[in-house]
Amino acid sequence: MKELYHPSLFPLSEGINSEDYVVATYMVAGGAQADIVAKSAALAIEQSSGSWYAIPGETAEIRARSAAKVIGIYSVPNYELIAQLPKDQPRYYVLRVAFPWINFYDNIPLMLSSVIGNIASMPNLKLLDLEFPESYLLQFKGPKFGIDGLRKLMNIPERPILNNMIKPCTGITPSEGAELFYNASVGGVDWIKDDELIAGSPAFSPLEKRVKAYMEAAKRADVEKGEMTLFTANVTDEIVRLRDNAYRAIEAGANAIMVNVFGIGFSALRMLAEDPNINVPICVHTCYGGAQTVAPNQGMSTEVAQKLIRLCGGDMSLNVAPSAKFNALQEKFVRTWQIGYSQMSHIKQTFNLVGGGVTPGMVPYLMNTLGNDIIIGVGAGIHGHSMGPKAGATAFRQSIDATMKGIDLTEAAKTQPELAAAIKTWGIYGVDDYDKLYDLES
């Protein structure tokens, strides 16, 4: 028998104790005559107990305990006959490989090194999903607040939460940012965050000064509008400064913090989320994530990334909207939301922050697609409003209110000049040509 065909490497899923394994699902491609069975076994061994060549030290006992197991090989299309095979075209497969999690325990970097480590350099291989058993999930705390906790904190029981990121993105002083903050907040924004491009404590905007200036603006706005404003300070930095930044931001008054998770790593997010002294919500920005997720045949899927964000404690996480600035596929948009929202053992939900070129004219589409349990994230759609950021925020609240009441935006705009001005500038999604708005997409 060929060693790489041995049944011990290919148990049925019914033949393993599912609580002992994290299951990885991959899409792979190979030539028309590729030996996908042997290739799958080689992949599993390479990423667990063995190497590219048989080594004497990999005993039967070690392989039984630590080798990954191939529990599914599926050709797409599912050919049965040699005569059906395409000529001079690659064949595509879905592989399911079960990794004994004793190999990497709750060590996220080691887990990623196992499931998408060396094989990430193979052409035409993408990690589509990771399935975690209850026994593995119990090692993680997940988000401190989640959707329910954030709604209680902000006293917003039903409607979508309106978020704004300060624009200009970077280069502004604390006093300049505070003025923009105040105008957006008093216009109806619930939650304002630093942009992903300003973080830590740059010379032009020291962390404590920025937080204190913005929180003072929040207090002024809150008195006027009778609502609470959440401020998220971006504490992203070198890892040795990360926890200290979070402590300093909270001590200065920030009632939430943010990290650029692909810059700092999932484990750094987990470190902050599981710190008992960090008792504020954590927003996760996914910039740079496209370098790992966007390639259709390489890297890992957005679904995997969002699952890890939730596992490691992200209370809110960015989800790029379709037909906006980066034109995400609707199925990816919906699946990313579902991964934050659906049941995951004891792990609380992650609130989906829908962003990337959102305007008031997109609100009905977003709410009709995903419901009210979303955060509508807006930058230029507020600060670029022709009547100013206060009116820009008001236009979004008007759009949200109209959609919740089932009123068409065109009708609502007849008596609401802020909404009317936004629609005149940007249009309504599904009615007007949205793609013309975004130079990045074109």
Helix coverage percent:
25-40%
End-to-end C-alpha gap: 56 Å
Q: What would the average pLDDT be, to the nearest integer?
A: 93
Unreliable runs: none
Q: Give the radius of gyration.
A: 24 Å
The number of helices is 18
Spatial arrangement of strands, main beta sheet: 5-6-7-8-9-11-12-13
The count of β-strands is: 13
Largest beta-sheet characterization? 8 strands, parallel, barrel
Binned strand content? 15-25%
CATH architectural designation of the largest domain: Alpha-Beta Barrel
Enter the CATH topology name of the largest domain: TIM Barrel
Rough outline: globular
CATH class of the largest domain: Alpha Beta
Q: Which structural class fits the helix and strand makeup?
A: alpha/beta
**Going by CATH, what is the homologous superfamily of the largest domain?**
Ribulose bisphosphate carboxylase, large subunit, C-terminal domain
Domains counted in the coordinates: how many? 2
Walk me through what this model shows.
With 442 residues, the chain is an alpha/beta fold. The protein folds into 2 domains: 3-137, RuBisCO large subunit, N-terminal domain (Alpha-Beta Plaits), CATH 3.30.70; 146-437, TIM Barrel. The chain is built from 18 helices and 13 strands. The chain has helices spanning 36-46, 60-66, 108-115, 134-137, 146-154, 174-186, 207-225, 239-252, 261-264, 266-273, 290-293, 302-311, 330-341, 363-370, 380-383, 389-404, 409-413, 417-426; strands spanning 21-30, 69-76, 91-100, 125-131, 161-165, 191-193, 230-234, 256-260, 282-285, 298-300, 316-320, 351-355, 375-378. The strands form 2 sheets. It has an 8-stranded parallel β-barrel with strand order 5-6-7-8-9-11-12-13, surrounded by 8 helices. Helix 13 links the parallel strand 11 (316-320) and strand 12 (351-355). Helix 6 (174-186) packs parallel to helix 7 (207-225), helix 12 (302-311) packs parallel to helix 13 (330-341) and helix 16 crosses helix 18 (417-426). The longest helix has 19 residues, at 207-225. It is globular, with a radius of gyration of 24 Å.
